[in-house]
Amino acid sequence: MKFIKLFLVSLQFLTRIPVPGRYTDGIEVSDYRRMVMAFPLAGLTVGLISAFVFIFTQMWWGNLLASACAVLTIAMITGAFHLDGLADTADGIFSSRPRDRMLEIMRDSRIGTQGALALIFKILLHVLVIYQLAENQASIVHLLIVAPVVGRSLSVLLMYRQNYARESGMGNLFIGKIERGEFYTALLIGLVLVFLFAGGYGVLMAAVAGVLLLVYRALIQSKLGGQTGDTLGAGIEIAELLFLLLMVH
What we know:
This protein has helices at 2-14, 39-78, 81-93, 99-107, 113-136, 140-154, 180-224, 229-246. α2 packs across α6, α2 (39-78) packs across α7 and α3 (81-93) crosses α8. By secondary structure, the protein is mainly α. The longest helix is centred in the last third of the chain and has 45 residues, at 180-224. It has 8 helices and no strands.
């Protein structure tokens, strides 16, 4: 029962799916770090809705427009939460300013040139890679379901034993706070789901995406001295896209 509540809290936190507060009563803020164990299931929920929209729109409009609708659906379900982190991270990291100034830029609600470019290229690549997979593979629906699982499962790599680069913020709920059991549980649930929907090759490509995400983690660490909520969101977007790109063959 506690795990189901953690799953519902993760839906409240990561998506715009309405979850009545009474269903999550009893979960204290100090327990929020434990919801990372349910992140893969929140990703599965996002993936199922996105795949449904793809199947529905594909019947009328074909693969390209259905791919755009699938990506738009993910952005709507999540409230573009992670895309906002990607834009803020790009604005800060590519500003070539000192660390403290980078963090100030990332907190600025206005979007800069680097952030806008990051959003354009990410969304464009996301649509095109889904289109490419749909043209070449019968398993595109399975990949649409599991790609958000990969992104949210691998996000624990940016939390476990990491420093929080700010003094306060939502990322502080997870970064450096999750424990070993929560870290491995999230990865294990993610691994099982990827195997069920994408097989052994999918697990291998998810592992490669994880290695590349560690490179991203090292880059952020060198620039900011730790992770933030924005870099977590950016990491989820990057891991999800990397997995799909790696599945093109």
